[in-house]
Amino acid sequence: MAKCSETPVWHQKGLRHVWLPYTQMKTVAVPLPVVRTQASRITLADGRELIDGIASWWTACHGYNHPHLRAAVTQQLEVMPHVMFGGLVHEPALTLAHRLAAKLPGGLDRVFFCDSGSVSVEVAMKMAVQYWLNQGLRGRTRFVAFRGGYHGDTTGTMAVCDPEEGMHRLFRGLLPEHIILDLPRDEETMASLERAVAARANEIAGIIVEPLVQGAGGMLFHEAAVLKRLRALADRYELLLIFDEIFTGFGRTGSLFACETAEVAPDIVTLSKALTGGTMPLAATVATQKVFDAFWSDDPLHALMHGPTYMGHALACAAANASLDLFEREPRLDQVRAIEAGLRQGLEPCRGLPRVRDVRIRGAVGVVELDRIDDLVELRRRFIAEGAFIRPLGSVVYLTPAFTIAEDELTTLTRAVVKVVRELN
User: Fold this and answer.
1) 237 in catalytic set
2) Would you tell me which of 25, 53, 181, 234 could form a disulfide with 390, CB atoms 3.0–4.6 Å apart?
3) If you average pLDDT over residues 73-90, what whole number do you get?
4) Given a cut of 60, is residue 180 above it in pLDDT?
């Protein structure tokens, strides 16, 4: 594609009015104008192509513009783009609910749709608190959550994120105070967790955790044994266990859901990100029958009083059904295993470099943890110069590519990481 020397008019006119995410607008580098996406590539207005190393915040698991997803959305658009989910239902949403229930383990079979990951966690927390209220138990309004965790940007979800995590620490005083502890990785941290839960069990509605990988809080890994301990603790004190699979769900860690790998089933699971293959906003909070039964009543006050305007959005549900088709028809989990091998080989040269604290791989997640990142904007610029769109966070450079990424494209990404990290002062 021929290069264009001028910035697009829409970019010049619109940028002065938009407010960008996670960005100090006074000092921000000019965001790159994108005109097209295809597979694992992002085409810029000046004709440059970048290989996307993070699949648009982990959503585009099948790559961009997959023809099956595009056809499903196009077909649904011709029939019915949306109809309210209050008093009405439609085939894409009910089919999706049935399919999700069939694929999730442990009797997770009641699906509540919403439109973003943060809201799905808000709904899960609301469900957990009302679960107890509907049984006449008041005061169970606290959650146990964990350092290194990230569950969203809304007010409720910020309160169960790591309190020292940079994005949300400004809001102390506004947020409810929950019980934030270390993940129980050893006997000492497990004992500390047990003491805290035993002392405050009558205040606690549930335990919330990201299974196997804590995502935006630092791409921190833990083993299945941690989740087994949490399940046992929740059962001992009759607490609800919530798995936030917004990042880990739909193949990212090597199985369709991380809880499958761990062989631990939660009472509530939250899903979003790759649910629609990166095409439409959609999320779901899925509960077991036990949780649902606490809301089954003749009393209208026992109903779950929540309902996003675009709940069960037909276009998004059609995309999600098409995404599930691809997991069934195409070798996605085999591709994740191949990516895992490629990440292990490609990122290994980072191990032992002066600024590198750790290199870790799980499924289609590759992480190079640095001692610090002094200038995120400059680091991102260096990756772009190497033809890679990589967006480090905190002190972590990470890759979470589309599962369909070509072998040579993955090699380009890992080589870019090794080169840029090696050149750090």
Assistant:
1) no
2) 53
3) 97
4) yes
